[in-house]
Amino acid sequence: MQLRNYINVVICAGVVLLAPLSQARNHNLPEFTDLIEKNSPAVVKINTVERSRSRNRIQVPPGQNIPDIFRYLFEPRNQPERNVHSMGSGFVISADGYVLTNNHVIDGADEIVVRLIDRREFTAEVVGRDERSDLALLKIEADDLPTLKFAEPDELRVGEWVLAIGSPFGLDYSASVGIVSAIGRSIPTDRQENYVPFIQTDVAINPGNSGGPLFNLDGEVVGINSQIYTRSGGSIGLSFAIPISVAKQVVSQLKDKGRVDRGWLGVVIQEVDRDLASSFGLKKPMGALIAELRPGGPADRAGLKVGDVIVKFDKTRIQASSELPHVVGASKPGEEVPVTVMREGKRRVIDVEVGTLGGDDEEPIAQAGVSGDRLGVVVNNVDERMKDSWQIAGGVLVEQVEPDSPASRAGLRPGDVIAQLAFKDIDDLATYNEVQAELPTNELLPIRFFRQGRPAFRTIMIKE
């Protein structure tokens, strides 16, 4: 009896202890039911159809005698059209029928059908699309539609709860939740452009979710689900959304003119590593190093130079080179912006009028005149045809690189064209010989070169 009473006391005590813990959990976790019920009607499913074009079969080649038994194979015939179906998500942003989605959801589509939660379907017209941000604005003929509200830009914080609604794998109006894992992720496109500072989340996003909204706990749209990292085709907890700050700018311009104009500097940039930072007089790796200037571009006209490190654009500090396209693209074309650069170890501020960004490698050919030097390379003058092909003014062509030489440790290869050494332009072989002869020893120095027409910066050190 005493043992039984003891057990009862322990069990009761367990109930007493567990109840507050359960209540605490319920109190701390967000409640999503009202958010989903209120906002789901404005989320849409998008079905697209792309029709393949009919093609003629191969015809008998002129002058060829084909045996009769095989001639039918070469008779002109039309292959039947084959429709390619695809799907995605989107959401209504105005009661008169404007719908926002991803560009890749409707890219190449011949027919776009928007389906509402009440099962009504509308054929949509493309108002405009923007490949650089992967956004598209559609219009359907409907009135009094439920809409979603955009959140205020730049208020999202890492760790916030977020919720996605969409149609993964064709499943209508599925909801998934998670947190914001990071902000400002840079993911270059296939064209190596980078104008979107993506929101990274661990929300379960799968094929079909693309174009759907990402909500905060207030039911406001903070992003548009766009991409995932995956090895299997499904979610592994790495999803990316276009921030609402980008979407607002894109939607406004697509409504007004059907296209998106962005700020443009006219520079090719690269990351600054520890060695480059030391050679440029920076205390730590930061900024965007100008590896090339577009002739006549905004940066060129303002007086920026190759080798400048942009550390601040207007009021925004540039910690990594990937951040520069984000802030430049978001700037207004035509406005004058102060740009802070590090040039040969000194900080300078240069005013730049922002421009407008609208919507085969040749084998090196050398001339006579070989030279061996302290860098451990054999160089030559650059042929005029190569200059024209690569659009370079001068430099020297690297023909040989000695093993374990300063040039080898810097990563130079035969075929590279050295254009600058220690901030000094290399026009030809004579200039190069003068510059390399005066280079200091045991000091990291910047070297700029072209590889297959693309500029790059490295550091080089000549040891005693």
Automatic annotation (TrEMBL):
Q: Which residues form the PDZ domain?
A: 249-345, 371-453
Show the Pfam families listed in the entry: PDZ_2, PDZ_6, Trypsin_2
Q: What is the predominant subcellular site recorded for this chain?
A: periplasm
Compartments where located: Periplasm
Q: Which InterPro entries match?
A: PDZ, PDZ_6, PDZ_sf, Pept_S1C_Do, Peptidase_S1_PA, Peptidase_S1C
Signal sequence coordinates: 1-24
User: CDD domains, from UniProt?
Assistant: cpPDZ1_DegP-like (cd10839)
Could you name the active-site residues? 104 (charge relay system), 134 (charge relay system), 210 (charge relay system)
UniProt similarity note: Belongs to the peptidase S1C family.
Q: This protein is called what?
A: Probable periplasmic serine endoprotease DegP-like
